[in-house]
Amino acid sequence: MSWRETLLETYSRHLKGCSRVLDLGTGFSENLSLLFSVLETRATVFSVDPDEGALGEAGRLFGGYVSDGRLRLLRARAESLPFPSRFFDAATAIHTFHHIGDRAAAFRELLRVVRPGGVVVILDWTPLGGSHIHPRELLERSMEETLRLAGRLLRVVERRLESEYYLLTASVPGV
Known about the structure:
6 helices, 7-stranded mixed sheet, Rossmann fold, alpha/beta
């Protein structure tokens, strides 16, 4: 199953009924398409990225969602999110964690901004896959640290390891 199919299935099971969703790492906007195909029309997605170019491209591709208030694009880093505590019902980080310098700080921020019982979905590349341009050592380090931190800080509901990607679906403790 491709990572896109896996995410659609995961989102269909875990994001129904969410009204505010954080998209951590706008990137190439692929995740936005998947989120909007599953979320209810009353849901708002807040997509953050430190790269102004990525945000501009997302605004161009999803201008209708921006205009109707369903998509808000903000320049921010995962380690310092500009949102109040317990603001989101869910957060997604797709092909993002290998780009984050301080993963522990990013996890602290996720725990702060997602309400207790809220859903966190993380999907990223494995070092075994060949369809990406990132150094194997970076992906090994990122995957190891991300899985360790998630296992320690979140309630993992599903952990899936494929040759190209890994997926974690978890809830924020506290409920």
